[in-house]
Amino acid sequence: xxxxATIRNHVNIVGQSSNTAPVLIMAHGFGSDxxxxxxxIEAFAPKYRIVLFDHVGSGKSDFNAYSPHRYKSLHSFTHxxxxxxxxxxxQQVTLIAHSVSCMVGLLAASLEPNRFKQLFxxxxxxxxxxxxxxxxxxxxxxxxxxxxxxxxxxxxxxSGFAPLVMGNADHPELAVEFAKSLLAMRPDISQAIARIxxxxxxxxxxxxxxxxxxxxxxxxDVAVPVAVxxxxxxxxxxxxxxxxxxxxxxxxxxxxxxxxxxxxxxLQPLMLE
Length: 273
Fold this sequence. Notes:
Alpha/beta hydrolase, alpha/beta, seven-stranded mixed sheet, Rossmann fold, single chain, 7 strands, hydrolase activity
């Protein structure tokens, strides 16, 4: 199918080949792609069927499928995500999501709760802007400076943004990898998606989520303060918060063993053969 979500979003399935194996879906964050899950894939592939994809505008997705009219909110990415689930007939799946994909997953699980068994949110935020007693981490002026830098010189912005967000200055190769995935995006798409993410506010949607959710919050994340993880745990029913002693916004790349352990400890038991 020309308009197939599995083609448009460059879906790959790895791990267990049996259709009866429990399913993990891994959904990447902004500026990243499905290759960022390689350490988690290695850990969970022996027992799980793992579904990977790239959001439109990222990785090896079909960039021609992008339009500012279609992708004007996180709901558009939610529609893509659910379309993948429908085409693959995925049921009772566990979602492991990073950054923006956490809110995409939240919206999807709120719309189709029976499709999801369990959610894991890594470095999630429902709102990046500070608002009265809510600490999101950014003022509007901060975000405006980001947009201006992206517009002025996208290459320079990505080269500076990557090490700031990645952290772990003693491993500069991680920032280089993240910068490369940012630069693989079309600048116009990257800027548009950044605005959607940073200007979104899904705090009012948190209470709608009924799926058991584990929030994995780094203690040192320049993009998402610890207060945000605590806010999520307070407002999402059936949730628990794990504060990890990790640095940076992409702990599944910089501290994979810690993230893998956190997920493994809270994964619901495998179904009996």
